[in-house]
Amino acid sequence: MDKISKLLHSRIDDSEAYPVVTPIYQSSAFQSNSPFFYTRKNNPNVAEIENAVAILEEAKYCVGTSTGMSAIAMALEQMGPGGTLVVNKDVYGCSLKTFQKFTDKLGIQLLALDLSIAENILLIPADTQMVIFETPTNPFLKHLDIKKISVHTKKLNPNALIVVDNTWATPLFQQPLKWGADITLHSGTKYFSGHSDVMAGFILTDNEKLHKDFCDHRFFFGAILEPFSAWLLKRSLQTFALRMREHQRVTLEMKTFLESLPQIKKVYYPLIDGKQLTGYGTLLFFDMREDLIQHYPEFAKALKLFDTGTGMACVTCMIAQPYSGSHSSLSENEKLDMGLGKGLVRLNFGFEDIEDIKTDIKNAFSIIEKIQK
User: pTM of the full predicted structure?
Assistant: First the structure.
């Protein structure tokens, strides 16, 4: 046989390798008798991270996707023409734009309500196909009662789907399926990764039919998580609980610190009721004092330990202005309706020494106060 033919078909027998960590299956195809068959359908690394996330979320089924937005798209595909999609008023900017485009295309009524107010839950209409929301909310970290929203909606329409984006709470501190959600979502890019080096999404359910639909959608639309990212995520999840323990400790201490600063009007922190939400960590919002708002760019630049951008839930501190960042895609009226102004600041706390973080923030405020004078 020609040596090139031999080369192309050379393989090692790894059946007795028994690695303590699953290797990366960087293969687009498998033998036809393999349950994976083709990586657009599934892959061992993807299946492994799906199992791990399902364990955390205490869900029967999990589907890994390329991004958190692709997981949201899968959920929206469960709706047909007509009826209403109810969304919470406080929502990530790109999510809202996705909802608007999707409902316009299918002739679905889009209704935005502040579902953190109990009376507004009663405004959910009888023709609702789906209610989708984050809790805690982005921005403002408001608490939404999943059970109340689910019970009321299901009374009106038992077939309506309750979808909860659980990214910010994480499954360590909240399991929406236990409280009446049909679907829970995650941007794995955030807490699951924790190192700002992976893009991923997850969609979970206890409903077998929904799970099959999600798998079909992923296969036909090519939205699967790629193997190396899945491998990195599994690696990161091994320190997930440790990271979140420290994030929680630092965030609570920083809340108290920020509330003591005269340059800050209000600090936003979620309601930890010990039932639906049992903990929280990493991200805080605060309102900057009015006379300092115009100097936000100088404030961000003066910080030495905070990177700027869309990163969050990572090992280093980051700062963002939702008005010009996460919600920049919204119109001025949409921002106004959400109560979102230029003075709202988002801080992500990493693993730098906490006294260094405090000093950095104090120094940055001192710099802009001198500019103000």
Answer: 0.95
